[in-house]
């Protein structure tokens, strides 16, 4: 893994390491999520409890962080990456992702290396170092996300799907395709050089590491952004450009879901483009190698797997900024005013919201409760199943007034009661719900 213009690490493996999630055949949708829901971190990984203890020991639980404390945020980012099936080294980078950050270093700089290194592998430490010293905001946002329009991303996703199929099935490679030319102009196969945020030293970042940091930013943003940041940065257009400066905004604000879905969907699309270009690159190299011309390449970090997060239909869909605002507002009005204006009115709003934005779970969950209240159990079951699937895919809540664990538990209650075809008809009956099977 490259950390300077003169230091490179060679990896000779040529196996294609771009992985797409396969639909689970298990009747239990919880899978790996259950240990996180139980707080059984040792079942997730034997070393995870001790890693969390290291972070807790330096007071991370006392640090304010957006919608909670820093300890919980770091654990949540690990959780999200783990649920997206990222390699353990990448998940651990997520766990320690800002431990050596220039602005928020939770470890004493004089002892940080020893304190952290003794608990992490070499790959994790190198990733964590890079994550903390490169200009992430400009690299991920200005140099990648803002270089594409939404329409362009949609077109390039379609074209790249065809290109990948042609490469793998027919051995056809065309480097002059528009989507490939743009990807390689922004992030060449040899990586990109950026400046160390503190020293100004050149730092070489491989294309795979750039892709990994895009995925980590998706996890990072999805866990922490809510309506407060929209007010703070005047994110009225839903593009999350961090252009405003309303520093007088009062935390936590009204608690509305944040307008971050458009940005994350664009990140996911770009991540898919990078992953597909890497897969084509590796396929072409493998086929050339079959004729004796295989040349190992240094500094490309090919041991890092580019897993595809399941959100936004496996990072193949882009949610428009205007649709995001419209559907968020419909959801917010329905969930806040439905008890006053009537459940039929709320149902209609939620249905319209889901039609335009089917990518988050909470609207399905609220709709499922309306169906249960009205005795429409089959519809409630279908809505709860969709809501639970999206909640489990994200690993974080869109509506952050309640925790992810709380949303999942409530949705499981709805699903269980829908299958039982029963629902309380008293306030105490509602309040006494809780057991899930």
Chart the SSEs and their pairings.
Layout: E1 18-19, H1 33-38, H2 41-44, H3 48-57, E2 64-65, E3 68-69, H4 70-83, H5 88-95, H6 112-117, H7 122-133, H8 136-142, H9 150-170, H10 178-186, E4 192-195, E5 202-205, H11 207-224, H12 227-232, H13 261-289, E6 306-307, H14 311-315, H15 321-341, H16 343-356, H17 362-373, H18 377-394, H19 404-420, H20 427-431
Parallel strand pairs: 1-6
Antiparallel strand pairs: 2-3, 4-5
Helix pairs in contact: 4-5, 4-11, 5-7, 9-13, 11-13, 15-16, 16-17, 17-18, 17-19, 18-19
Structure keywords:
single chain; 437 residues; mainly alpha; 4% strand; globular; disordered N terminus
Describe this structure in words.
The chain is globular. Helix 4 runs antiparallel to helix 5, helix 5 packs across helix 7 and helix 17 packs antiparallel against helix 18. The chain has a two-stranded parallel sheet with strand order 1-6. The longest helix is centred in the middle third of the chain and has 29 residues. The protein is 55% helix and 4% strand. It has 20 helices and 6 strands. It has 437 residues and is mainly α.
């Amino acid at each position: 893994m490259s950390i300077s213009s003169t230091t490179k690490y060679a990896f000779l493996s040529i196996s294609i390491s771009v992985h797409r999630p396969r639909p689970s055949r298990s009747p239990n949708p919880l899978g790996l999520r259950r240990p996180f829901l139980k707080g059984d971190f040792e079942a997730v990984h034997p070393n995870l409890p001790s890693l969390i203890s290291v972070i807790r020991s330096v007071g991370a639980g006392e640090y304010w962080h957006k919608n909670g404390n820093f300890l919980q945020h770091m654990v949540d980012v690990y959780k999200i990456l783990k649920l997206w099936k990222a390699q353990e080294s990448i998940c651990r980078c997520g766990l320690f992702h800002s431990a050596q950050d220039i602005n928020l270093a939770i470890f004493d700089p004089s002892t940080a290396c020893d304190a952290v290194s003794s608990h992490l592998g070499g790959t994790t430490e190198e990733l964590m170092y890079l994550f903390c010293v490169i200009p992430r905001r400009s690299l991920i946002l200005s140099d990648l996300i803002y270089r594409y329009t939404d329409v362009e991303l949609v077109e390039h996703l379609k074209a790249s799907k065809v290109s990948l199929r042609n490469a793998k099935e027919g051995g056809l490679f065309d480097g002059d395709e528009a989507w490939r030319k743009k990807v390689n102009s922004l992030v060449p196969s040899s990586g990109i050089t950026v400046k160390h945020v503190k020293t100004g030293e050149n730092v070489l970042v491989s294309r795979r590491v750039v892709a990994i940091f895009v995925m980590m930013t998706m996890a990072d943003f999805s866990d922490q952004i809510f309506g407060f940041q929209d007010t703070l940065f005047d994110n009225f257009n839903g593009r999350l450009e961090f252009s405003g400066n309303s520093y007088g905004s009062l935390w936590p604000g009204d608690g509305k879901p944040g307008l971050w879905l458009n940005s994350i969907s664009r990140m996911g699309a770009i991540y898919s483009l990078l992953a597909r270009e890497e897969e084509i690159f590796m396929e072409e190299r493998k086929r050339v190698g079959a004729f004796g011309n295989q040349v190992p390449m240094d500094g490309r970090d090919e041991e890092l797997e580019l897993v595809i997060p399941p959100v936004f239909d496996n990072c193949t869909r882009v949610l428009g900024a205007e649709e995001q605002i419209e559907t968020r507002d419909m959801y917010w009005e329905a969930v806040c005013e439905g008890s006053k204006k009537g459940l039929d009115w709320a149902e209609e709003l939620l249905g319209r919201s889901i039609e335009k934005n089917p990518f988050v779970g909470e609207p399905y969950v609220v709709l499922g409760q309306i169906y249960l209240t009205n005795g429409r159990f089959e519809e409630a079951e279908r809505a709860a199943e969709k809501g639970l699937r999206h909640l489990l895919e994200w690993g974080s809540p869109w509506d952050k007034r309640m925790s992810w664990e709380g949303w999942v538990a409530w949705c499981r209650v709805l699903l269980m009661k829908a299958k039982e075809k029963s629902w309380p008809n008293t306030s105490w009956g509602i309040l006494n719900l809780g057991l899930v099977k």
